[in-house]
Specification:
By secondary structure, the protein is mainly α. The protein contains ten helices and no strands.
Length: 171
């Protein structure tokens, strides 16, 4: 088991210590987690489900480090592991997507490259990158941005017009 460093017991609140050691996240992320827990409490999310959500949020945001999907792959192995469309693509062609987040997002999230059951509503040029994963759950795709916009703002166009809103920790 992990042992808390001596300084941690003297400097941190018990809640922060629990969050820090349970989730194994940076100290700066503990404040984010505390805010998320407070918001879930206010929304009536049962305590037993909060752990599940926090675990997913941690995974989706790389340990609460980024609320916007980076898509900056640097190796073919990682690219092929993450996206099936690259598994049989010739190396020379696949390499053009490395370190090129816009090109990558526009390819992997374009409805023309997805099966019927996995379409995201990305039908216009540039939609893949514009509606890439954002927020604690990495909302992806025009259709999902539209649905969430309606839920959060009562207007399906708010997030379509300004998708970066979801990169704000308040959402």
């Amino acid at each position: 088991t992990l042992q808390s460093p001596v300084w941690a017991n003297q400097c941190l609140l018990p809640v922060q210590m629990t969050i820090f050691w349970t989730l194994r996240i940076t100290m700066s992320a503990t404040n984010t987690v505390q805010k998320l827990i407070k918001k879930m409490d206010e929304a009536g999310v049962p305590k037993e489900k909060q752990d599940i959500y926090l675990g997913q949020f941690k995974k989706e945001t790389g340990g609460f480090r980024s609320l916007t999907e980076g898509l900056r792959y640097t190796t073919l192995a990682a690219l092929r592991k993450s996206f099936s469309m690259f598994r049989n693509m010739p190396d020379a062609e696949a390499k053009t997507y490395l370190k090129n987040p816009k090109k990558l997002a526009n390819a992997v999230y374009d409805d023309a490259n997805r099966t019927a059951s996995r379409k995201l509503g990305n039908t216009e040029e540039g939609d893949g990158y514009k509606y890439r994963g954002r927020g604690y759950i990495q909302v992806t795709g025009r259709d999902n941005y539209k649905k969430l916009s309606k839920l959060l703002f009562g207007d399906e166009n708010v997030l379509l017009d300004d998708p970066d809103i979801l990169s704000n920790p308040e959402y």
